[in-house]
Specification:
single chain, mainly alpha, 9 helices, 67% helix, elongated
């Protein structure tokens, strides 16, 4: 009988210790979201709202930017280093101006959609139909905003030479400078000429 009790205790002790440890970990680990409950719109920070209101990129054009398709804003910031001509500057500036205007309008629709979704939960639990509608509307508004930024990158690319695109990638830190050294087996003059180093 005594042996039975000892065996049961051996089984129960690890479970009890785990439960206590588990509870202690949870009681001392606040949510990563703590503090965000005071936001105007819970899914968007003040910085997010400011960036969207300015028509800034908000990271939505990474699919273009990180795959070698430059955007107008950063191109204009690096205009001298990249060697943009006056005509290129003028055309890229026009793209940026239109992009910013479109992004501000699309951003307002996105923020409004997120605000409606947030309000639905503040007022209680939305029903299935309302929830689906609000989520779809917010998703479509975000997609429309993303499209504005990605499209501006596509409109910009044909205005640039291959050498300018390469230089942009180097200046933005996405690739090494091909002009810094000539790989073994390549003719130095041909390499520099091909990569726009001269």
């Amino acid at each position: 009988m005594e042996t039975k009790h000892v065996a049961m205790l051996m089984v129960l002790i690890p479970t009890t210790v785990f439960a206590q440890t588990h509870d202690e970990n949870h009681s001392t680990s606040p949510s990563a979201y703590a503090g965000e409950e005071t936001r105007l719109i819970k899914s968007l920070s003040e910085q997010d709202l400011e960036e969207i209101a300015r028509g800034s990129g908000w990271g939505l054009a990474r699919a273009a930017e990180l795959n070698g398709v430059p955007g107008p804003t950063h191109l204009l910031e690096l205009a001298d280093e990249i060697g943009l001509t006056e005509q290129q500057r003028s055309e890229i500036e026009a793209i940026r101006t239109q992009m910013q205007a479109d992004a501000i309008a699309a951003g307002e629709r996105f923020v409004e959609a997120e605000q409606l979704l947030d309000a639905a939960f503040q007022q209680g639990a939305p029903d299935d139909e309302a929830l689906e509608r609000l989520v779809v509307e917010a998703g479509q508004a975000r997609a429309a905003l993303r499209l504005v930024h990605l499209n501006a990158h596509l409109l910009t690319l044909p205005l640039l030479t291959d050498a300018q695109v390469s230089q942009y990638s180097v200046l933005r830190g996405y690739s090494d400078d091909p002009c810094a050294s000539v790989p073994d087996g390549h003719d130095p003059e041909m390499w520099r000429s091909h990569n726009g180093c001269n």
